[in-house]
Every structure is written in structure tokens, then in C-alpha cells.
Backbone:
């Protein structure tokens, strides 16, 4: 029994080099043709190159997910090229931000708009394209642990990811009569595994996804720190996920094997979210999971050599 997305067309928004690119590559390796969107033309093109060097078919479609004119244009480009859309992955987001006491309204509104308008416009117009063609497609919104649990220092992110969790359930109801499914996937700080990104990082000596935040110099004297994160030591199975793990799961979610799965959220987190809040796993002693089934045939060394 093989999961295949052959004949299907996918659109992945925010197909930057980390999670979006990992999902786009997975959809292509499982057989779909993939349109890679990003607000950055370079990011969209890099995702296309990655898919092509892995034997897949892809096209770049640039534009802002929260701008209706852009969305209509790039959906039109996909439909003109390939005649259909079966899969939409709402991945684009503005990451980072600050906590309640420090965030500013400009950043807050932009982050919320990219998430809210981005998910709304792409889901609405991709769904209409599916319905007009009789396609029983699949829409996946990429959330975060921040959709389900509160963390300090990310008030806008918490707001829009939490809102999307119920957007997904309501959209699943609106599209159920058409056989179109809407689900979400919640990444848990995966460790990047795109060889091109890793090669780029090695050049600059960077090893972590986001470096430690620098506190602003002008904090008031009543300021108190909110706490810290330990995203590697709290995983019962002892190993972080990768965008490849996420890609395997999302590809399955978009296959017809999942034909009745709608309004659900998925994680690939080694048990992190299932964990009792006060339980400290013996993560360092864990045997670890089965080996990863890779999807990218290129290595970091090959990417460095091709520079
Ligand atoms: N990286 C993590 O640890 C993590 C954890 C949980 C959830 N997530 C979620 O996974 C998704 C991908 O995260 P990532 O780490 O790959 O982020 P990333 O910042 O590397 O990629 C996001 C991409 O979205 C693009 N983008 C931003 N605004 C856009 C817009 N208006 N229109 C089109 N493209 C736009 C950016 O250019 C970028 O390439 C996001 O939804 C994020 O919230 C990430």
C-alpha cells in the first residue's frame, strides 16, 4: 500500500527554506505538482529548485498571502499552468514578536493580518476553485504549540495561532458539504533539515533556529522576565521532529487515505503535547525513534560545493 498524490496539484504558502519547503518537497516526493508561494521571490524559487533537484515538478508563485489581488493572481497562475488545485497548505506566517507589555500595534496588526487574511483568502479562493472543478481537496493550516498553550513573549503569535485553531474547525464545517477537508498541523520547534539552509547557516556559524533575544535597553524598572523555553529537553521520545517528519504527516493528511478526516489537528512531537504539564521526561536517556525516512536526496556538503 503506497500513499500517492499523483495527479494532484498543491499550493504551499510561505515556502521559505524551513517548514514550508519541507512540506512542499514532501508533497512533490509523494507525487503532487507543487506551486511554491512566498512574499520573497528568492524563497519561492529556492523551493522550486529543491523540488526539481529531487525529481519533482514545481512552479514559483510570488505574492502576499494577505493581499486579495495577489492571491487571485497567483491562484490564477496555478490554474492556468496546471488546471486544478487539490491541496492548499496555509504555511506563511510572521514569526517572533514580543510579549503583551512590549509589543507594538503595528507589528501586532501585521502578524494577525498575515495569519487571518492569509488563511481566509487562500482557503476561500482555493476552495472555490476546487468546488468549481468537483475536486474533493484538502486544506491544511500550519499552527503552532502557541495555538493550544500560552507562552510568554509572543502575544500576537499566540492570538493568531489560537484563532486559526477554531478557523480550521469552522472552515471544515463550511466545506464538508463539498467533500473538501480542512485540518491543521502544529509544529513543535522542529530542527531544520533542508541541506541548503544548513549550508547557509554553517557559513555564518549559526546553529539554532532563532538566536537568543536581546532585551531592549530601555525597559522600565518594574520589568520582570516572563520565563524561559526548553524546546529540546521536554520531549518524551528524546528527539525533535524535522520538517521531513512534518512533510510525511501532511502528505498523508492530503491523501485520499484521510478522506474522512476533517477539523482535526496533528502533531509529530515525540509525545511533547501529550505530556502531563509537570512531568519532566528522561529525554536524555530515551532510546530515540526509528530512523528518519529522508525525502531530500542532496546533502549539505553538496549544497556547499554547488555554491
Ligand atoms: N519554526 C518553528 O519552530 C515553528 C514552530 C511552530 C510553528 N511554526 C509555523 O510553521 C510555519 C513555517 O515556519 P518557519 O519556521 O518555516 O518560518 P519561516 O519564517 O522560515 O518561513 C515563513 C515564510 O513565510 C513567508 N511569508 C511571511 N509573510 C508572508 C506573506 N504575507 N505572504 C507570503 N509569504 C509570507 C516568509 O517570507 C517566509 O519565507 C509558520 O506558520 C510558523 O508559524 C514554526
Residues:
Amino acid at each position: 500500500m503506497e500513499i500517492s498524490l499523483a495527479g494532484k496539484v498543491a499550493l504551499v504558502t510561505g515556502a521559505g527554506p524551513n517548514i514550508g519547503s519541507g512540506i512542499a518537497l514532501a508533497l512533490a516526493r509523494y507525487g503532487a505538482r507543487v506551486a511554491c508561494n512566498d512574499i520573497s521571490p528568492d524563497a519561492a524559487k529556492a523551493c522550486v529548485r529543491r523540488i526539481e533537484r529531487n525529481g519533482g515538478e514545481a512552479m514559483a508563485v510570488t505574492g502576499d498571502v494577505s493581499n486579495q489581488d495577489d492571491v487571485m493572481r497567483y491562484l490564477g497562475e496555478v490554474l492556468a499552468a496546471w488546471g486544478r488545485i487539490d491541496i492548499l497548505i496555509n504555511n506563511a506566517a510572521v514569526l517572533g514578536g514580543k510579549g503583551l507589555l512590549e509589543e507594538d500595534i503595528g507589528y501586532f496588526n501585521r502578524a494577525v493580518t498575515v495569519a487571518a487574511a492569509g488563511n481566509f483568502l487562500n482557503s476561500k479562493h482555493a476552495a472555490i476553485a476546487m468546488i468549481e472543478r468537483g475536486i474533493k481537496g484538502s486544506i491544511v493550516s500550519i499552527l503552532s504549540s502557541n495555538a493550544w498553550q500560552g507562552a510568554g513573549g509572543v502575544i500576537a503569535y499566540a492570538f493568531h495561532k489560537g484563532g486559526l485553531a477554531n478557523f480550521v474547525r469552522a472552515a471544515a464545517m463550511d466545506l464538508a458539504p463539498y467533500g473538501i477537508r480542512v485540518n491543521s498541523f502544529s509544529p513543535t520547534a522542529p530542527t531544520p533539515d533542508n541541506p541548503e539552509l544548513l549550508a547557509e547557516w554553517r557559513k555564518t556559524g549559526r546553529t539554532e533556529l532563532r538566536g537568543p533575544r536581546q532585551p531592549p535597553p530601555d525597559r522600565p524598572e518594574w520589568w520582570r522576565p516572563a520565563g524561559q523555553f526548553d524546546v529540546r529537553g521536554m520531549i518524551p521520545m528524546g528527539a525533535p521532529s524535522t520538517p521531513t517528519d512534518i512533510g510525511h504527516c501532511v502528505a498523508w493528511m492530503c491523501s485520499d487515505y484521510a478522506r474522512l478526516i476533517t477539523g482535526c489537528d496533528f502533531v509529530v512531537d515525540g509525545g511533547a503535547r501529550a505530556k502531563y504539564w509537570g512531568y519532566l521526561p528522561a529525554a536524555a536517556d530515551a532510546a530515540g525513534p526509528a530512523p528518519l525516512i529522508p525525502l531530500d536526496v542532496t546533502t549539505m556538503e553538496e549544497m556547499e560545493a554547488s555554491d
In short: The helical segments are 19-29, 41-53, 68-82, 105-132, 155-175, 195-204, 243-253, 300-305. Residues 105-132 form the longest helix (28 residues). The mean pLDDT is 96. Strands lie at 9-12, 33-38, 58-62, 87-90, 138-142, 181-185, 265-266.
